[in-house]
């Protein structure tokens, strides 16, 4: 073998050796974790839903409450304006724009508040006509939170000033109505590719447990109905149902449940009903929201620790933007200092919680996409612009692992 051939062979051997050493010593970079950032969406900002007219006769849904705030309460401190205008979210072109903005800023799931009153669905047009008909709806996932509370005069600003709280529609339903609702949702929504699932199981969240239990006739009857719901979901071809509880003090116990024989009645109550996960809907459900946002976040940390040590189910961390219900009522507890910068601190808390629980899906819920009348929204306004959306983008999109 000629000298130059020996040189070539030696060079090739050395090249392979040193590259193998290099590969062995190279630090493996873990891929960036894909978080599911889910924002609750309140479907009342529509212009083509006739069932909303009794509450908002102008025909643009609860935008009416937002837009006539100063007219009803002259000189009131609350004066917010949507930068996108009072859009019709049941318009697929509008929803297409909102989906683009959501995904761009890191929100990849909408949790639709879903209602059923007087034997039929209510406020379903935003989902059916807006989201599902948008040309880019495949870019996001969605799931349902059944908002099964009573409807009182709160929505109707012409009447709620009298504080009568008359029940217009009850959230209670009997077993036959429950089965009708569940079968309908399985067929109409669960089977859609956009429906959010965990380990193949459709996620379904329930807001008000006392209403459900009372309507079905008691804790045992409610547990049996929810068990049936899970079995029906399996019959439809899914591995199961991810039944999600709205974490809230009124949902943690019930007069019909005897917890005297167990060390932890709250946990036993939830397990008996068959819930496998939970999240919050709003800070106001467990915190004093008439406070500084940073103080509220300290209480949130303590609540998460309590949940971790008390309950067996999976908890997905929740962050609210704020709270001020005065557009409906003229007066309200008010979260103070909830700037986008402080909201970002809450998001980092939620991210850290998700990272500290690597065995569960990194799902984080936010209140909300568009709760203008509760002043807890991500959509851009005349006060902070795109500040809240940019905070999500900074934490979950822009930053490297």
From TrEMBL:
Keywords of the record: Signal
CDD domains listed in its UniProt record: Glyco_tran_WbsX (cd11579)
Lineage top rank: taxon: Bacteria
Signal peptide: 1-24
InterPro entries for the chain: WbsX (IPR032719)
Protein name in UniProt: Glycoside hydrolase family 99-like domain-containing protein
UniProt lineage: Bacteria, Pseudomonadati, Bacteroidota, Sphingobacteriia, Sphingobacteriales
């Amino acid at each position: 073998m000629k000298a130059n051939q020996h040189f070539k062979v030696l060079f090739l051997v050395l090249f392979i050796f040193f590259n193998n050493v290099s590969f062995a010593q190279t630090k493996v970079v873990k891929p960036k974790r894909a978080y599911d950032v889910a924002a609750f969406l309140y479907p009342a900002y529509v212009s083509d839903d006739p069932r909303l007219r009794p509450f908002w006769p102008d025909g643009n849904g609860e935008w009416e409450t937002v837009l006539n705030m100063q007219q009803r309460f002259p000189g009131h401190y609350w004066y917010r304006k949507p930068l996108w205008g009072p859009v019709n979210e049941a318009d697929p072109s509008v929803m297409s724009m909102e989906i683009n903005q959501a995904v761009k800023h890191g929100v990849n799931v909408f949790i639709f508040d879903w209602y059923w009153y007087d034997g039929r669905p209510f406020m379903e047009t935003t989902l059916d006509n807006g989201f599902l008909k948008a040309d880019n709806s495949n870019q996001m996932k969605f799931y349902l939170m059944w908002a099964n509370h009573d409807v009182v005069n709160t929505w109707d600003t012409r009447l709620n000033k009298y504080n009568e709280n008359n029940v217009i529609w009850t959230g209670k339903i009997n077993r036959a109505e429950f089965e009708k609702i569940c079968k309908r949702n399985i067929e109409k929504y669960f089977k859609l590719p956009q429906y959010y699932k965990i380990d193949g199981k459709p996620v379904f969240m329930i807001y008000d447990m006392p209403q459900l239990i009372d309507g079905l006739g008691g804790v045992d009857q409610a547990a049996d109905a929810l068990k049936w719901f899970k079995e029906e979901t399996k019959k439809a071809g899914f591995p199961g149902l991810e039944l999600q509880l709205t974490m809230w003090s009124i949902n943690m116990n019930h007069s019909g449940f005897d917890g005297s024989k167990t060390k932890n009645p709250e946990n036993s109550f939830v397990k008996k009903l068959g819930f496998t996960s939970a999240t919050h809907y709003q800070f106001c459900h467990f915190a004093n929201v008439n406070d500084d946002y940073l103080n509220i976040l300290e209480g949130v940390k303590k609540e998460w620790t309590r949940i971790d040590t008390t309950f067996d189910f999976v908890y997905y961390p929740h962050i609210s933007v704020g709270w001020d219900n005065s557009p409906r009522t003229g007066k309200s507890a008010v979260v103070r200092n909830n700037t986008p910068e402080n909201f970002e601190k809450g998001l980092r808390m939620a991210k850290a919680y998700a990272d500290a629980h690597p065995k569960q899906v990194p799902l984080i819920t936010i209140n909300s996409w568009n709760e203008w009348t509760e002043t807890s929204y991500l959509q851009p306004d005349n006060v902070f612009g795109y500040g809240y959306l940019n905070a999500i983008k900074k934490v979950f999109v822009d930053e490297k692992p």
